[in-house]
Known about the structure:
Helix content: 55-70%
Number of helices: 12
Distance between the termini: 19 Å
Shape: elongated
CATH class of the largest domain: Mainly Alpha
CATH superfamily of the largest domain: Hypothetical protein, domain 2
Largest sheet: none
Order of helices and strands: HHHHHHHHHHHH
Strand content: under 5%
Number of domains: 2
Radius of gyration: 18 Å
Amino acid sequence: MTRQEKADQIADILEDLYPETPIPLDHKDPYTLLIGVLLSAQCTDERVNKTTPKLFARADTPQKMIHLEVSEIEDIIRPCGLAPRKSKAISVLSQMLLDLHGGEVPQDMEALEALPGVGHKTASVVMAQAFGVPAFPVDTHIHRLAHRWTLSTGKNVVKTEADLKKVFPREKWNKLHLQIIFFGREYCPARGHDPKVCPICSQYGRKGL
């Protein structure tokens, strides 16, 4: 079986299991999504969703956020971890949105990646989920599953992203990104994983994983 044939069959399994792909982070617009994704670094979506209501009650726009002290932001987001770094990034990027983009989140990868605290993966999530632009955000979990399913031999997320984009149709990237995340949580965790009962690894998995 070729890698492409395998990818097509895996995509069919994921579509059967997850025909609907709700966005995991609670948000109301591109700005609140951007902040949520930034906070999700090394933190669960569940914890972010418990934290952001308190933050957004104080400031849910760049105009409001810049009037909060960094220490205030830090106190609110502390449960998400890395609070000193994330709070400073939120404050500075909010000012940059006002100074450079009229207070709007730019629909441009390069402009997003120029914001503090926003790497390629975060920018890709915002482009996909806020603006519907085809992107394939690859985090450590998707990287792990792509390796398990022998869809990529990439040693890093950059190579894995390129490999996945080659075998999956562009119009399906945004949905597949979420389907793979949902599948990983339910069937294919990093620990305690039984490949013999996993709906994908049992058929397409790399031996020993």
